[in-house]
Design brief:
Layout lengths: L9 H9 L7 H12 L3 E4 L6 H15 L7 E4 L3 H14 L6 E5 L5 H8 L3 E6 L1 H9 L10 E5 L1 H6 L3 H10 L5 E6 L4 H10 L4 E4 L10 E7 L5 H10 L8 E4 L3 H13 L4 E4 L5 H12 L5 E4 L14 E4 L6 H8 L9 E7 L4 H11 L4 E3 L27 E4 L8
Parallel strand pairs: 1-6, 1-7, 2-4, 2-5, 3-4, 5-6, 8-13, 8-14, 9-11, 9-12, 10-11, 12-13
Antiparallel strand pairs: 7-15
Helix pairs in contact: 2-3, 3-4, 6-8, 13-14
């Protein structure tokens, strides 16, 4: 199968060819015809399988064939990073430059976003909070929206955006097409789907909640006091090919501490978490993407929307509180057909969380007890450099039928 079978115009096919899009991925093969037909859709697929193009390509075709003024498509994303990634993908895939795109995210100048929205914008990509700020100021008119996309819907619910989503929905036309995409499909997502869609098609190209198949998963059982020393051992062993490493911590403070430890050991490292400004986060991501930083330490803010080529390893320094977040973390590697490895550093207290992850994914993660690190005696970490030396800022398709409410 190739993209020409979807009826895309020649200019759009040329754009795809220039980007190296040869064969549609499973989610694209199944989702694109449904979106083009005008039906509502719920798409569940592993991260890194082309979900963004699965909704952007048919949206671009539809708004190009029926030009109208006003915002035609609204894409809601849970994080700034994911919104920026979708904007980048849209710029690459859009073959009609008149179909302008605007982005509305927090952490940036709201006045410049208001100025951008005064132009004739066809596609708006936004995080829920900033979108509501703009509607309150009268800067956005959502009455012309024909297509709503809820991307990474499960993460939006995890982040407490359900009230904001409901407020946005109240401003949209009742007659619209709704597309909901997620890597996991929980009961709360099904409930959201029932309330926002009308007789949607449910597309699943993998088992719900399953981690990416191109990723080798392994868990090292390590005493809590040895976690940092074990991470340093992994990164500094020459026999290991840790080329581009994404390390996840559970807290912002943990990300700061760990990045300072790695800097003191002369690793090139950047960090992303909610306390960093948007310019700092973008600078960190650029440094990681272009190879100036070998290691990126991040909280789960980077588990969605971070699309960096050839991440060789994801390391769970802290096991996530929600099993679904493990799936998204692991999905940052093993993308676009490449092999990847996901390493979890598991303290005894984390075992229950690991079992919950295994129940969700239906996969058993291999356990290893590394010699010298699993015992109660801590391994001594060499002294760190003074704090003042740290750099700053550096598939299956079927109908989805709503369940009847119990009386």
């Amino acid at each position: 199968m190739n993209f020409s079978q979807f009826g895309f115009p020649t200019a759009q096919l040329r754009a795809l060819d220039s980007l190296g899009y040869d064969t549609p991925t499973p989610i694209q093969q199944q989702a694109i015809p449904v979106v083009l037909s005008g039906r509502d859709l719920i798409g569940c697929a592993e991260t890194g399988t082309g979900k963004t193009a699965a909704f952007l390509l048919p949206i671009i075709k539809q708004i190009s064939e029926r030009p109208r003024r006003g915002i035609r498509a609204l894409v809601l994303a849970p994080t700034r990073e994911l919104a920026l990634q979708i904007e980048k993908n849209y710029a690459e895939l859009n073959h009609v430059k008149a179909n302008r795109c605007a982005i509305a995210i927090g952490g940036t100048n709201i006045r410049s976003q208001m100025t951008a929205l005064r132009r004739d914008v066809a596609v708006l990509i936004a995080t829920p909070g900033r979108l509501l700020d703009l509607t309150t100021r009268g800067a956005v008119n959502l009455s012309t929206v024909e297509i709503l996309v809820l991307d990474e819907a499960d993460r939006m619910l995890d982040m407490g955006f359900l009230p904001a989503i409901r407020r946005v929905l109240s401003m949209l036309p009742t007659k619209r097409q709704t597309l909901l995409f997620s890597a996991t499909m929980s009961a709360s997502i099904e409930q959201l789907a029932r309330s926002t869609t009308s007789e949607p098609k449910l597309i699943e190209v993998s088992r719900r909640g399953r981690a990416a198949t191109m990723v080798e998963q392994i868990a090292y059982q390590v005493a809590p006091e040895n976690k940092t020393a074990f991470l340093l051992e992994l990164l500094e062993k020459k026999s290991h090919r840790f080329e581009r490493v994404l390390v996840f911590t559970r807290t912002r403070r943990g990300a700061e501490r760990l990045s300072h430890v790695l800097q003191a050991r002369e690793h090139t490292v950047q960090r992303i978490h909610a306390d960093r400004t948007q310019p700092q986060r973008e600078a960190a991501l650029r440094a990681f993407s272009d190879g100036r930083a070998r290691v990126l330490v991040a909280t789960d803010i980077a588990a969605r929307g971070l699309d960096v080529e050839a991440i060789s390893h994801v390391i769970n320094y802290d096991i996530p509180a929600a099993p679904e977040d493990y799936v998204h973390r692991v999905g940052r590697t093993g993308r676009a057909g490449n092999q990847g490895q996901a390493i979890s550093i598991v303290a005894p207290i984390d075992e229950s969380s690991m079992r919950a992850i295994e129940r969700l994914t239906g996969q058993t993660v291999k356990r290893v007890s590394p010699q010298g690190f699993a015992g109660a005696q801590p391994i001594t970490v060499p002294p760190l450099k003074p704090f003042s030396s740290f750099a700053r800022g550096q598939a299956q398709v079927r109908s989805f039928r709503p369940r009847r409410a119990s009386r």
